[in-house]
Give the backbone structure.
Amino acid sequence: MLHSFNSKGIKSAVVSVMMLIVLVTGAAASFAADQMTSQPFTGAKVNGGTVTLTKDGGKTVLTLSDDFVVPGTPDPHWQVVDSKGNVYLLERLPIKGDKVNTSITVPSYVPDVAKVQIWCAFAETLLGEAPFASPAN
């Protein structure tokens, strides 16, 4: 049984498949641009775990990885450093009870995030930091 193929139909199918590939690749690139993961935390008390920066409706959200261990210090806080070296002390890591602020929204006045630090406000010392490959804004 022989079937005849219409060359216009084949060309149309090939063009449709190519457009689908372009759309899927573009969507994946867009998603990757809206999410970055830092290098692992290193420091005096915090070694291991990472932080992921995502864009959510125009807001920048930082989220600690599941393997991050909250340091056993009196008053650990989130702290971010922008690309110009300005430091912003943010929320406390532990909150009431045994709960932990594993995710925070970066205030709009922070222009970008070059690295995330865990800061002990009680001892006023850096416990660990996790830099990003490039500043995220």
